[in-house]
TrEMBL record:
It comes from Grosmannia clavigera (strain kw1407 / UAMH 11150). Pfam families: Raffinose_syn. It comes from the Eukaryota. Keywords: Carbohydrate metabolism. This is Raffinose synthase protein. It catalyses: alpha-D-galactosyl-(1->3)-1D-myo-inositol + sucrose = raffinose + myo-inositol; Hydrolysis of terminal, non-reducing alpha-D-galactose residues in alpha-D-galactosides, including galactose oligosaccharides, galactomannans and galactolipids. The keyword Endoplasmic reticulum does not apply. One of its GO terms (molecular function) is galactinol-sucrose galactosyltransferase activity. Belongs to the glycosyl hydrolases 36 family. The keyword Ribosomal protein does not apply. PANTHER family: GALACTINOL--SUCROSE GALACTOSYLTRANSFERASE 2-RELATED, PTHR31268.
Amino acid sequence: MGDGEYSFAAEFTASLPKKAIRVGKKRGSTAGGGAQAAVMGVTVSTYPPLGQVTQLASGDSVGFYAMLETKRVSGDDRASAWEVAVWHSTSSGADEGEADREGEWAATELSAVDADDETKPRSWLWLQDEDETTVRHCYGGTLNVGLGPAWFTVRFRRRATAGSEASVWRWVNEEQETEDGTLVIRRKSGRPAEADLSNLIHGLNPAFSVTSPRSQVAGTTLWSLETTVAGATDTDESGYTDTTIGTPWGDDLLRWLALVRVWTPWLAPSHGRTRLQLDRDAVLCACLSQTGQHLVLLAVSGRRGLLSVLRTDEAGHLVLHVRSDSLVAEQATLLVAVADDVERANAAVMYHARGLIGWEAKEEMTSQGDDQTEIPDILPQYLETWHDGLGFCTWNALGQALSEAKILAAMDALAAAGIRVGSLIIDDGWQTLGHATAVPPNHFQRGWAAFEAEPTQFPHGLAHTVHQIRARHPHVRHVAVWHALLGYWGGVAPDSELARRYATEELQRAHPPRRHLPIAGPMTVVVEADVRRLYDDFYRFLAAAGIDGVKTDAQFMTDTWLSARARRRLAPAYEAAWTVAGLRHLQARAVSCMSQTPPLLFRTQLPVGRPALAVRNSDDFFPDVPDSHPWHVWTNAHNSLLSQHLNVLPDWDMFQTVHDYSAFHAAARCISGGPVYITDAPGRYDTALIDQIAAPSLAGHHVVFRPDRIGRALRPYAAFHDRALLLVAAYHGDSAGSGILALFNVADRPLAELIPLACVPGVYSTASPSSLSSPFFSPLSSPSSSNSPSSPPLHIARLHSSGRLSRPVGSDALLPVSLGVRGYDILTVYKPLAFSFADHEPPLYVANLGLVRKMAAAASVVSTSAACRQSGRRAVELTAAFKALGIVGIYVSALPTLTVADNFLVTIRGLPIPPTCVTKSASDPCLLEIDVERAWKDLQQTPDWNNELRLTVHIMLD
């Protein structure tokens, strides 16, 4: 590139959200700002949290909890030595009992709580490793906030003693540089089903034709807004139409989230408060009102040549911006849903959009010459054969100058380190390309020349390379290659073998707003009539060479074409030809990359009726851009709020195991629900970290463990610079399965929070039934409440970093968590099985924890069943199946009173395993550990047709 001073790292950092800390209004004396607070060694965390919006199910009485952490010093370390109070707005004088942020505020003192007393109704889960230099004091109380909303902060000071006066009040929002917390109470009236859209979108433009189709999601109301947009011109230029929508919630807007086009191929989250102001085009926007309702707006693209996005004007109105490539005027569609939680409203618009797109997508596929989307010769195979194997990608590991020798050496190095990857992606750098014509030269202007690999670096051809890989490393089950949707970044080389075999045309491209991708100007592409034949021939060649997967990149390139005709006709032809050829020749093993343009999201990723597609979920992993790493995980977690409703497996991209953020990235990939693959330089591996990610299958290759429900951001309205932990929620199994909550510190300082157990998926709240389906309702009741006999089942929580387990607890438990910069942890919550015997009280609780040394331990479980056996001895028989070998963890509540020799018998395939393979865990007194990998070898077992390990544990109580 021409400018020698250009820095991609600087450009990337400049594109990130800017810090905008809004400290709450000062209410009195303070001991100093954040720097002084750190020196004084006091940290306060609360639930409900400061700086965030907490939505409460109902009622005007709120349980409030705080934890004050101080450095252990000589003197009085008792909780009673401190005075802690919540300073909050009141409902006095406000209409309908509402609080006024600028009105009256009052203090509610909190009482010290013995958090170690297990007889108390609320449990505090001390699962992190203890810091001997820190003292933790816990407090609780009840706030009366009326109908809300209410705002609050916390102040604290040392109490007066006989020899000294009380210290000055210190304010947490000032010392820790965070905002006031907000409480939103869901109203008992004004249900979504009774909502009038004009009351939700203030100044709703009458230019829209509004209908209210039936929503597929209970508890939501759905609207479809349509408006006429101009078509393309006679000169092959697109038509553009801007239609003002209105202002969501008007002055009652509290917070909003938008998924915006950060640049042409990628989406990223954008956040704000009170005033909706989009600095980039948005595909989806969610808005929270002060009354606790969520309005979600989705601009539908991919129909009849339309690309629709959301913008805002200078007055703060939301605007529907539409680009039309159609030859005639068309109807653009905006979907709007309202609900008491954002997940329901989000699902309502996405489900309806799928119905709108489905038939048009099917018509597009049949227009390419196939009368059905499900090709009859697809082999029936499980997805784990492609997505569940630990993968290796050459991109960051070997660079772009690939060769057969480099690839074989890299695979040899992996095997020498004991890393048996199940899949290999040969990334950009293997293809035969035309000559560079750009000045200065860059590969983004080069075109594809031939199917065969580059002859100098792959002198014996692609098939020879693949044969060598498979012969030397039989554990590699799948080999995939990279290519661009149009062939290469510059399409097809105009003077190439491919240009002679297939008819081509030249198209002009616009330059996207990223300087490191200079792609503007002309490119040569295969014409519509030959695209299907091109893809069929190419993928037939790949399959014959032993390639059984592809990573198809640069799919956004069709959106840079200046020709409306090409976008209208040629782009869908490429998409359909790629899909059909992949189904026919590669059994749908494909990764779609740089494909988050609105037409591709709706046209190729939303429709069902075909195998789920692996789709890159965000911009790349940039190992050499420090600021990119927290943002990468943050972006993927929020983009998954959309991806969860697409027919895709979100791919959070490759990462390196030797890196400052390696474990941070590894944890994110493990809970993502998508594929996991590494890109380490040969010989540079953190095998201890890889052992937390993957495990050997019965066949010998390493597999990873993907949760059934993909990981997604749990607090969608929290902004990147809010100095709050990023919570990513996933779930594995059926109704008796396990919830997974990954916690990441994306801030530039240590953070501490109180995490309610009830926010973990699958943990049922003791609140009203209407709140159980949403993680965004607070489960907390007042401190004086207790569990009733009709309370939901108990849960067992386990923290990955320490391996510690909780006792069986209710959903009202709180987990104190402290994470340093780049810190992460993974909380898994299990539903234990309870067994009662006539003369044995309390009940025996048993839970299968999975392969406990793994980050996604619960996702290693295929099935679990247990039954009580009372024929002669009081006994429980637990049978479980696992995806791989490792250390199985079984929670047994009575384990401290039992012995392995007298009370346990473990079998594999009916064969008792050696007693030395079963031990009590050093990490928790109630954890039984079974080394099934060692037992498998000691018993000299070999895999059969089933790739699952089946284990039976006999627990005998007498």
